[in-house]
Every structure is written in C-alpha cells, then in structure tokens.
Amino acid sequence: MTHCITCSAPVNIAVIKYWGKSDEALLLPANSSVSVTLHQDQLQAQTTVAASHHFEKDRIWLNGQEQCINNPRIQNVIREIKRRARKQKTDSRDIAAERLNWKIHICSKNNFPTAAGLASSAAGYACLVYALKCLYKLEGDVSAIARCGSGSACRSVHGGFVVWDKGQRLDGSDSMARQIQPHTHWPDLRVLILVVNEQKKHTGSTEGMQVTMATSQLLKERIRSVPDKIEQITQAIHDRDFKTFAEITMKDSNQMHACCLDTYPPISYLTDVSRRIIHLVHCFNKHRQETTVAYTFDAGPNACLFLLKKDVKKFLHLVKRFFPPKTEEQDFIRGNTKQLMENLSNDCEEDLSYFPFDPMEDSLRYIIYTTPGPGPQELPSDQSLLGEDGLPKSLS
Amino acid sequence: MTHCITCSAPVNIAVIKYWGKSDEALLLPANSSVSVTLHQDQLQAQTTVAASHHFEKDRIWLNGQEQCINNPRIQNVIREIKRRARKQKTDSRDIAAERLNWKIHICSKNNFPTAAGLASSAAGYACLVYALKCLYKLEGDVSAIARCGSGSACRSVHGGFVVWDKGQRLDGSDSMARQIQPHTHWPDLRVLILVVNEQKKHTGSTEGMQVTMATSQLLKERIRSVPDKIEQITQAIHDRDFKTFAEITMKDSNQMHACCLDTYPPISYLTDVSRRIIHLVHCFNKHRQETTVAYTFDAGPNACLFLLKKDVKKFLHLVKRFFPPKTEEQDFIRGNTKQLMENLSNDCEEDLSYFPFDPMEDSLRYIIYTTPGPGPQELPSDQSLLGEDGLPKSLS
C-alpha cells in the first residue's frame, strides 16, 4: 500500500518585510509582515509525498537531486506535522493514522530556476507542509508549521494578500499567517519581476537577519513602526488604493535595505542595476504625475514591481528601452505575455528626457509578468513526481 | 591703496557625519559632527582677497571663472565678517577699519580637480572667511561665519581633529567648530582617498539632507545616538585607539548612507565600486584579525580610508590588485608618495583567497595618499592670485 499526494504552492513577495528573528529556534519574526502571493502559472513549487510500508527510510529529492533528509528544518516540519496528526488521530480515529508510522518519500521541484533568486524556499516549504497535511488528512491552519521550515513559507500557505502575525506566545503557536484578501479582490493588479544579471553571491537572508538583529541600531526604530504600516497597507489593499499601497511598499523596501546597510559589517543587496530600476520607477511616477509603479527588493538585486494592468505596456516599453537584452531574445519577457500586445514599442512613446540616464545593456536576465494568485493546491495523481516504485520519475 | 591677503585652507573629512539641518537659513546642523582635517600639500583651497578704494564693485573669480558675487551664501559670509569687524572697530579703532568701506575682489582656486567630488566648498568657504578675517584683522573664532557659507566649512577653519558643536542658541551663534587634537597628535595616521571613476551626477548634499530630514523615519533615531558616538570617538582619538576610531567611523558612514536609503525617494551615493571597497576593507581586517583600515563615504562614491603608516603598503598593494588602472598610469597614486617605497608589490604578498572577488578594472580614477594636517594659513604675498591691477593673474 502506497499513499501518494501531489501539491503545488506559490511564491510570495513581502510588501512589509520580515527582517530579523526574535527567536532563532522557533523562527519567530521580530515584526509582523504583509505579502502578496504570486500566481502559480509563473512561479510554483510542486511536491509529491508518498508514504508506504515498503519504504525503508525517509528520503527527499529536490530538483532531481537527492538531499539529506536530516536537514533540521525539514525534520522540524515532519515532526510537527506528525505530532499534530497523532493528536488529531486520538480525537477522530482518522483513516490516515496508520500512514503516520510509515516512512515517507518526498520529491519537489520548482517551475522556475533557483538561480533567479526568487524565494524558492518559501514555496518549497509551504508545498511540503501542504502535501503532508493532505497526506495525513490534517485539519486546521498549518502556516505555523511551514514557518518552522522557512519563516516566510508561512505566508505561501495562503493565496492573495496575507499577513503574518508575529504572535505573542513564547512557543510560537500564534505566529501564523492569515489571508486578508483573496487574489480575486484586486483584478487589475499586475506584477513584473526583473531578474538581474549577476554572478555575485550575497549574504544569505538567515545569516543577514542575524547580523542585522545583533548590530543595527536603526532596526529597533523600524520594528517599532511596523504595526502602523501594516494597518495602513491593509486598509490600502482593502480599498484597492494603489497610490498608498505603492508608497508604503517602496518605503518599506528602502527601510529594510537601510537596516541592512546599518548592519556591521554592512550588507548590500541592491546593486547599481537595482538602484537604476528604483530611479526609473521614481522618474516614471514623476513624469506621469502619479504613483503608478512600485518596487520592492528582497535579499538580492531582483526587483519585484507592482502596477495596474493599464500601465503595464507603457512601463515595459521603458524597461526594454533602458535595460535592453544583449540580443533580441524571444523569451526576455516571460509569463502571462498573451495579455500583452505583440508590439510593445509602437503606442508607448514617452518623453525620454524625463529619464536622465543611458541604457544598461544586458543588465537584466529576463522579466516575469504575473499577477497575484491563489494558495497551495492538490494536483491530480497523474502529476505525481514519484513513480509507482516510490522513486522520482525524472530518474527513471 | 590696495590691501591684499592670500590664504590657504584644507579639506576635512567627517568621521561622525553631518546630515540634516535643523535650520536651513542659519545652516544649523541637526547633530554635532567630528572631522579630520587633511593635509594641504594634497588638497587645498587658495584664496586672495583684495580691498581697494579703486575697485568699483565687489567681484569674485573661482578657478579662473568670474562668478556672480550675489550668491546668497557668499553675501552672508561677507556681511557677517564686516558686521563683526565694524563691531570690533568701535572697540579698538583698528587700522583696518577704513578698508571696510572699500569694494573687494576675491580670487579662489583649488589645487585638486573639483570633479574629484571632494568637499571643495568646505575648503573654499573656510579659505574665504580666513582671508577676510586677516584682511580686516578680525579677532576670535570665525568658524560660525564659515558655517554660513557651507555647513561643513566651519570644520575646515581648524587643523587636526575637529568637533562641530551643533549649539543650543536659536541664532546659531554657538554652532561652531573647535579643535579637539592638533594634527601632530597622531603622527602615524594616514589617509587614502580612492577617487571613483564615474560619470553619474548625484543628488547634491544640500538637497539630499532636506529630503532626508523631511522623510526619513530612521534619521531621528540616528540623531538621538550621535552625542554618545562623539564622546566615544573623541576618547578614541585622544587615546590614539585605532580600532575604536575605525569602527565608529565605518558604522557612522554606513548609518548616514542607511538614512539616505530610508529617504523617499531614496538617495544612493554608494555605487558597486564603493560597495566593493567596503567589502575589501572588511575582508582585509578579517584576514589580519584586527581592524587596520576604516572607510568613510560622503555624498558621493569616493572612499576616504584611514589606516596606520605600517599598513599602507600592504593595503595599497591590494587596492592596486583589485582596482587596477586600465593602463599602468604614472600618477595613479598621488600625494605623499615619497613616503612609499617604489615597488609596492614585492614584499606585500597576501593570501588572496581571503578576497573572494574579481578585479574591477578602471573603476578608480586615482588614489590620493595624505595625512591629517593643519588649519588655514596666511601665505606670502608672492603667492597672490590677484595682480597689481586687482584682476586674476591667470587672466593676464
């Protein structure tokens, strides 16, 4: 007997950032955060979990490579899910109970390159937790369990617009994510991810947060001010008030990176290309005399831009003008391109004197065009990543 | 009758930065600051002022070009100097009194390119104020008058290590600079200025400070913490405690730039080259297992580095290795090069695996090697920039 479940989960982009833990072991954040879950058509983790009495040991494959299952964070997630499932079992004598003693195989992959530097671990852990939840027929919220894998993974457990409450309890049991609006709430909202061409390795976010918590004097002031910002951006999302949403998003991104720079030794995730993107957005908004595009940056140089459907073509035209690909690439713009008209450059003339800089050729690898999207989903069994032998299909 | 005075004044580099005014009109700073005055052999403004009953109007030439004398800051300085001189005159019937009613000619130049982005206005205003002080035989401190020209100019009125107290009085009369140690106090201290090759125009510091004051939430926290830092760095200078001096200097530079990034729209003075210099310094210090080099950045990408004489050759070797000039330039390293041995690269082998990055060719324009230095000085009359006709010698 083998029980097998395949699920998918999305990436999320924080608009009020999580930077700094109040508890390293429990992955409790120093401040609450707000995110937008992105559509899985463009960015998705997919995970198959199988439990069988034939399996001799727990095993895990990520993007085709077997990994060590003893990774503490993976172990935390499996242990916590099983603990919750056993507790539920004693209450309801669930049919899935016997599976709890079987060994499991886990196989996971992303539909986008890890090299893109897009929080793949958040989607990955959310997907693992959601698949195990389905496997063991667990009820209730599992975002706090996803959090034990990767802090921001708890936000990928929900679709649409999500708040991760830092919680009050010392055991972290109330540090969980909740949806504040579904992805259908703001149909005109669009997302562009500008993937920057760069080789450099940056400080990982886990390590970066630790050093910032330990050394940045300014972070304390930031943490104090987050609750007010969350209230404001929640209202802006509720009202579909793009201007307020955009300005809070940009200021919060800048402030997180300011705290990184105030770290000792300082941490810089923004490169000259990132800073040029910021400049382009502000020039565009000034030129249009309203805030029509917002940027946000995580622990890397890639920009995530928010804008409304009506402005996408005009802005993309500018991006292609000032960050031209080296050769005219077919797939420079990826994702939901059917929504875009074929020829971007015809009806999009802007007064270029508003943009006082030269093009930076070959500085972007590609652009992903997407929208907010729903949360994790169970997929039909034909999409399983594991074969009937319990081994990855990609290896057979 | 023509009275003519020629003076020189130095550049200064802040180690506790001035960023933000509490009074725009009086140029009062939001926080006190600390600086090191650099030696005039390398970086110097030179100014001749002449007063004559033959002159028909006040005139000014900067670096060979006549400028409008009605610049409000120049007017502020001239008015304030004359006001003080008249007040003194009524007390002492000074011989210089009659000159106060004559028109003046001012001629000023720098011995370094303005394009280097090194606070030339500070040296320029300090020099103008000092020359006028000599011309009118004014007594007492003139740093508060220099402040009315360009805030940080008040620090260039003194040599060595200088504090600019923000002061308490609303009229700004106690917002002045004082020397905390002469330049001879720390004979081993050396300064390297890495002039970055870049075309981009940045936000001017006057405008930048205004926007930061108006929009940065984090700046308030920074301003609150400055008095403690000034106390600590003053003690470190007194003790010639390089490690403490260096760490406070680096942290304060990072924090000022963090507040710039927390500004809306954000301001970035640091480029990829600046950030690489920062990284090189931290790698070097880690490798040496002690803090032997410190960086600080003003409103631009150029780095000012502090280090001790014993470490200059080793560190310069690394700078040349990782920021090589495009062609082997004779004058890549300028300034006090007689102090350096001819062949930098021989006895300076470092384990380069500590420096995990590739060289950035042609990213530095040149390097200036200098030391702390004395304050403004009166020069012999043969160094006058004005001829006997009261016009710039460079024009005749």
Automatic annotation (TrEMBL), chains A, B:
Family according to the record: Belongs to the diphosphomevalonate decarboxylase family.
Gene Ontology cellular-component terms listed: cytosol
Record region (Disordered): 374-396
Function of the protein: Catalyzes the ATP dependent decarboxylation of (R)-5-diphosphomevalonate to form isopentenyl diphosphate (IPP). Functions in the mevalonate (MVA) pathway leading to isopentenyl diphosphate (IPP), a key precursor for the biosynthesis of isoprenoids and sterol synthesis.
Residue span(s) of domain Mvd1 C-terminal: 191-378
Keyword terms: ATP-binding, Cholesterol biosynthesis, Cholesterol metabolism, Lipid biosynthesis, Lipid metabolism, Lyase, Nucleotide-binding, Steroid biosynthesis, Steroid metabolism, Sterol biosynthesis, Sterol metabolism
Residue ranges of every copy of the Diphosphomevalonate decarboxylase-like N-terminal domain listed in the record: 9-177
Molecular functions per Gene Ontology: ATP binding; diphosphomevalonate decarboxylase activity
The keyword Lyase belongs to this UniProt entry's keyword annotation: yes
Catalytic activity line of the entry: (R)-5-diphosphomevalonate + ATP = isopentenyl diphosphate + ADP + phosphate + CO2
Annotated pathway: Steroid biosynthesis; cholesterol biosynthesis
Organism: Mizuhopecten yessoensis
GO BP term (any one): isopentenyl diphosphate biosynthetic process, mevalonate pathway
Keyword Repeat: no
EC number(s) per entry: 4.1.1.33
Gene3D superfamilies found in the cross-reference section: 3.30.230.10, GHMP kinase, C-terminal domain (3.30.70.890)
UniProt protein name: Diphosphomevalonate decarboxylase
Top EC group: lyase
